[in-house]
Amino acid sequence: MDAEKEKTGMEYERACRHFLMCVEGIGAAAAIRLVKHYGSARRVWGLAEKDIRQEQRLNERQKVNFMECRRRWDLAGEWQRTKEKGIKTVCFDDRIYPERLREIPDKPFLLYYIGRLPAETMPCVAVIGARMCSEYGRTVAADLAAGLAGRGIQVVSGMADGIDGIAQRSALEHGGMSYGVLGSGVDVCYPSSNRTLYQTLQIQGGVLSEFPPGTKPEAHHFPMRNRIISGLSDLILVIEAKERSGTRITVNMALEQGKEVYAVPGRITDELSRGCNRMILEGAGVAADINELAEAAWQAWGRNCRQGQEGIEETVWERNCRWGQEEGTEQMAEDRAGEKAEETEKRKEAMEVTETDRRGKTEAEKNMGERILRLIREKGMTADEILNCLLAQESGMDKTLNISSVQGMLSELMIMGRIVCHCGLYELKTCHIMRKRLY
What we know:
439 residues; alpha/beta; Arc Repressor Mutant, subunit A; 11 strands; disordered C terminus
């Protein structure tokens, strides 16, 4: 009876999903295709070898790796060792899977985490930048992260040396929540110099990774890790970056995901400021005031977040596997209950602020969007030029009109597919397509 219960339970399904992530060559996309087709990972695990050889969703190398790994894999033992380390998992079709990640095209199949997942009820800002940062960068990173934490905004980063670690430490020291996304397994602290930060994150937030436990940090893991950092965030904040750097990879991923990017300006003679200054020239928001930055983060969260997440239906495998007494089920319920209890007040405040803003600004935002589209109908314009034209039309009467609100509307129009940004100039998408055809 117990053996049958284990085979039909959520723990068994999670163990099979963990196995899929440990098969060399099978990434998130292939795993999602298999689970969607067969309905569960345990059915994939149970496929006969002749069926695997005929499986069109895997290439030849993946088929061979799958069969060889399965022959030597201790399903129950490997899963038990993962749980003994305090590692939890959440899969792409779980109800508690981060909504922000659910929306990106290359979402992770499975996330391993220690601590908690980022809360859906408050904004999340990715703070990224140079590892070998200047004293100016250190000061700005600490100050801005402290300001974000004090305004109920979560900080996510890669737990790296330099800007990442400084920002996360500052957020934690000022009572905020922070999350580290690793390019290794969540049980591997990298860099080792951030051991204290790694341990504190597990208490005041969490550490996350799509790589199985025990995975060592490798160079090709970090670009993959970066898409999760940007995917978990409502807004990206860049503090010091060379013109060509790994930070730019994260920024490009964020733009592809439709996320807003803000950069801290610096002296034109400083190499570490050239990347940020270039981003600003190309249309990134200027991070010069913590109040404007926090306002932009809350507005971005209001646009990105989904209301009524409690109404999300059970997934197919949750309905098939649920039997009520499994340890994993209880743990999920405890996690959700703990998060809700801790975040109730912040949820109420956030919803009140968002609802008030929505009632007061919906019509104004609609008008702003239409006015921007009229302004750029004939030629491309920078964000500053658009702001100046709008201020001239208002004769300076609209006090809410600033670069942040304009950038927010431009981002919204880009997400809607109405406009594009090319070399810092915003123009109608139809005009951009015609210009590309002409030249």
